[in-house]
Amino acid sequence: MTYPQQPPVWQQYPAPPPKKSPKTGLVFGVAAAALVVAVGGIAVTVALATGDNAISGTPISGSAPEVDPDPFSAQAGDCISADEDAGTNGKFSASAVRVHCTDDSANYTVIAQLASSTGSDCKEVPGYEYGNPVVYDFKSGSSRELCVMPRN
Fold first, then answer.
1. Sign of CA dihedral 73, 77, 78, 79
2. How far apart are CA 123 and CA 145, in angstroms?
3. Which whole-number Å values give the CA distances from 16 to 1, 10, 20, in the listed order?
4. How many helices (H) and strands (E) does the chain have?
5. Fewer CB within 10 Å: N-end or C-end of the chain?
6. Dist. CA 81–CA 104, nearest whole Å
7. Could you tell me if 133 and 148 are in contact, meaning their C-beta atoms sit under 8 angstroms apart?
């Protein structure tokens, strides 16, 4: 009696396919990248909504920071908005407000701020033209004046 020939054992039971190594590092890397992008998007959204740069605190929307409206906080080169048709120097001085030079209402540029006892010191300031208005400090009682020139 002959027995049917059987293949060798290693051919009867083929080896299972090799297992794939887990790619947990790749999964965590992708998850971390997605988290960074999401947090960055939220930070940009908050910064745009508040109008501030979170790092420096400066506005990013193109608007300038607030200025002290007191005209006597202005220095040479700063701008003033004042009523050109006020009539008297007291009313002109009372209407003066410090503004950004980019403001549409900025109609005067400060040339100098002086401590004045006579009220005629601006004529000594280089660049000041006689006849231009002067902003006097009537509120504080100090003898101060701003020599200003109309902006073009």
1. positive
2. 12
3. 35, 12, 12
4. 3, 5
5. N
6. 9
7. yes
Q: Which residue(s) pair with 149 in the sheet?
A: 109
Name the token pair of 90: 């007291």
Q: What is the pLDDT of residues 88-129, one digit of tens each?
A: 778 888 889 999 998 889 999 999 888 866 656 788 888 888
Provide the pLDDT for residue 58. 55
Q: In this structure, what are the phi and psi dihedrals at residue 98, rounded to the nearest 5 degrees?
A: -75, 135
Residue 107: CA count within 13 A, CB half-sphere: 12
CA 36/CA 30 separation, integer angstroms: 10
Higher pLDDT, 3 or 56: 3
- Residues across the chain: 152
Cα dihedral 118, 120, 124, 125 sign: positive
> What is the residue type of 31?
A
Is this model's pTM higher than 0.70 or not? no
Q: Which amino acid is at 22?
A: P
Structure tokens at 130: 């006689």
Token digits of residue 152: 């073009």
- Looking at residue 59, the DSSP 8-state letter turns out to be B
